[in-house]
Amino acid sequence: MSATTADPRSGAAYQGATAESIRHHYDVSNDFYALWLDDDLTYTCALWDLQDPADTLEAAQRRKLDHLIEGARAAGARRVLDVGCGWGSLLRRLVQEHGVQRAVGLTLSDSQAESLARRAVPGTEVRVENWLDHQPEEPYDAIISIGAFEHFARQGLSRAERVAAYREFFERCRAWLPAGGRLALQTNIKGNNVRMDKQTVRDLLFIIEMIFPESEIPALSEVLEASEKIFDVVSLRNDADHYARTCREWRDRLRAQRAAAVECVGEETYAHFDRYLNATVGHFRNRHLGLSRMVFEAV
Ligand SMILES: C[S@@+](CC[C@H](N)C(=O)[O-])C[C@H]1O[C@@H](n2cnc3c(N)ncnc32)[C@H](O)[C@@H]1O
């Protein structure tokens, strides 16, 4: 399934990262990611108890999932959609801990879908499908999307084009929800500190070109503008320090597994991931990047 597919009903062309670019990052190797992510392979910012130095990545990831599940009022729901489901930690948590009957996940990564198919959990379903092509047979009670929005508008678009691309996403979500239904969305956002040294600029360019090609971090104002007259904002928090700690933990775990990681993906890819994770700790600490967790309610 190509991420550039035009929607058959509206003819809208997809403005986000192509499936090829998504696979460039996420299909590196499932075994590689398992070396440094938490035990349930969640690959997005955790929700830490920042006062507790002994808090663990595993606990912080579960806390994050529960926070978004609560925000979306997804517990006990019949049908929940996860847009950008990764390796499926949210899908599993929804059905195993929160009594959801059917949790449907969308991803553009074949490796993630294969891994999910191998661990098939009753009540979960994964589709290698762009949200733009998704045509559910029934509406959903709640929608959650964690760390996928950064891929929904590619590099080089104007602000107006990005807002239009994000608006398409909000319109689709609205059409799949009842009035009052909720969408919990977590995404990186641009930080408000625009003063950068040369190394920061170099590292950001490296990440755009080598790590997440065709993706662009949205400005918070773009996300909000795109949702206007479709959703009310119920809550919004910026957790940049939580992503700094998450990336620091991933970097340290990766370094501790250096030999195994190099065996999985080779020296060059190892070095790229080490540089990206290490630089990103600083980007969040210095507020060149932010992390937004938002809950929207369909109007
Ligand atoms: C950083 S991962 C996050 C995975 C998961 N939500 C988590 O927290 O671990 C981004 C996910 O978004 C998916 N994705 C990106 N663009 C997409 C699109 N247009 N349609 C569906 N999934 C998409 C990727 O395939 C990947 O699974």
UniProtKB/TrEMBL annotation:
Keyword Cell membrane: no
InterPro entries in alphabetical order: CFA/CMAS, CMAS, SAM-dependent_MTases_sf
KW Metal-binding (keyword) present: no
Gene Ontology biological-process annotations: lipid biosynthetic process; methylation
CDD domains noted in UniProt: AdoMet_MTases
SUPFAM superfamilies referenced in this protein's UniProt entry, alphabetically: S-adenosyl-L-methionine-dependent methyltransferases
Keywords of the record: Lipid metabolism, Methyltransferase, S-adenosyl-L-methionine, Transferase
An annotated Gene Ontology molecular function: methyltransferase activity
Family: Belongs to the CFA/CMAS family.
Protein name (record): Class I SAM-dependent methyltransferase
